[in-house]
Amino acid sequence: MGLDDGGRRGVGSPDRLSVVIAGGGTGGHIEPALALADALRRADPDTAITCLGTERGLETRLVPMRGYDLALIPPVPLPRSVTPALLSVPRRLATAIGAVTAIVDRVGADVLVGFGGYVATPGYLAARRRGVPIVVHEANSRPGLANRLGALLTPYVCTGQRGTRLRHARYVGIPIRREISGLDRLALAGKARAHFGLQPDLPVLLVTGGSQGAASLNRSVLGAASAIRAAGIQVLHIAGPRAGDVQVPPGPAPYVVLPYLDRMDLGYAAADFALCRAGAMTCAELSAIGLPAVYVPLPHGNGEQRLNALPIEAAGGGKIVPDAQLTPDWITRELLPILLDRELVGAMSRAAASAGNPNADTELARLVTEAGRARARS
Fold first, then answer.
1. At residue 242, does pLDDT exceed 90?
2. How many CB atoms lie within 10 A of CB 364?
3. Could you tell me which residues come within 8 angstroms of residue 98 by beta carbon, excluding any fewer than 6 positions away?
4. Which residues contact 91 (CB under 8 A, 6 or more apart)?
5. In whole angstroms, what is the distance from residue 259 CA to residue 240 CA?
6. Domain architecture of the chain: domains with CATH
7. Contact, 230 vs 200, CB < 8 A?
8. Cβ distance 274 to 333 under 8 Å?
9. For residues 47 and 41, is the Cβ–Cβ distance under 8 A?
10. Which residue has the higher pLDDT, 114 or 16?
11. Count of helices and strands (H, E) across the chain
């Protein structure tokens, strides 16, 4: 809906849905938020989308790069323990709520969607203040504080994992980019392997620990590199910023090391199997495209990465290995036989695909539109 010069809803203004998306901070919040934005625009190109963020988050680069408006608000980090910083939280939160309220008024928001993190809490409270419908999406099995609050304020609560305990929760999966969810790995495999200098007919193991790499994964795979290559298995290793320091033992099969990969669709298409962490987005992407994996959850935190991968393992599409147990010997003894069994890899691929939802973006967009249209009609 449009606004008149005084910031109020204009009578007779174009019937255009205005959506505010609070998904700033980390990639785990931003990527599903942008996937939702893409789905909303595919359904209705006239949809107005405003993303909330802070000057500290990755959104300052990612949101404009994807062509969406970004409105910055003051960050309100919550201390993990009782410290003097806790005393400043109420004042900082009030300031952030005021900033979001001004944005909601300026864009004539019909609905606010939150993905958790620093910007979601003031977003939920500002929307509540203005009577704007709220949609909550929680990607992880263990909800964060912001989304636990948001779930108390709305009946529109979506989860990325089955069994996540939130009020009014309904499972939709995690929205991911269409470049990934619509990927035909088999059709693109030859082109992708040629892109990386890999051979077309040998199995490919993709190793990735995220944008910063993962030291334990790197050490274990490099320790087993001679055995992997001798078995005729190629490796596409996304080693992180220190990839230049990696020394790969010689062997007959190609072993490609990269510091990062901005075309993960090509990485996924080139691969038959993955060795990776178990972040919510990683699990969602691999299951959506049916790429089986060994998941190595982060050894610290609240254990949510293991929970992210459990449904995939239960379906037969992957295997969870504790970080402390991932060694070169384990890779040689346990992983190599799997990689060399094409029938098993194929069965695991089909099982992985059964555990995901490649249409989560569309389903969430439909719910957001429903909530926003209900407000616009009122």
1. no
2. 25
3. 126
4. none
5. 4
6. 18-176+358-377 (3.40.50.2000), 181-354 (3.40.50.2000)
7. no
8. no
9. yes
10. 114
11. 16, 13
Long-range contacts of the stretch 144-147 (C-beta < 8 A, 24+): 144/116, 144/117, 145/78, 145/121, 146/114, 146/116, 146/117, 146/118, 146/120, 146/121, 147/114, 147/116, 147/120
Closest Cα to residue 157, out of 177, 137, 175?
A: 137
Does the pLDDT at position 96 exceed 70? yes
What's the chain's average pLDDT? 90
Mean pLDDT comparison of 3-7, 28-32, 321-325, highest-scoring range: 321-325
User: CA-CA distance, 375 to 373, in Å (whole number)?
Assistant: 5
Cα(351)–Cα(355) distance, integer angstroms: 7
Q: Would you state the torsion angle of the CA atoms of residues 279, 218, 273, 286, taken in this order, to the nearest 10 degrees?
A: 20
Q: Which residue has the higher pLDDT, 18 or 91?
A: 18
Give me 230's structure tokens. Answer: 């001798």
> Cβ–Cβ contacts within 10 Å for residue 11, how many?
7
The percentage of the chain sitting over the pLDDT mark of 90, rounded to a whole number, equals 74
- The span from the CA of 374 to the CA of 378, in Å, is 6
What average pLDDT does the segment 265-269 reach?
97
Band (pLDDT 50/70/90 cuts) for residue 214 is confident
Q: Residues for the chain: how many in total?
A: 378
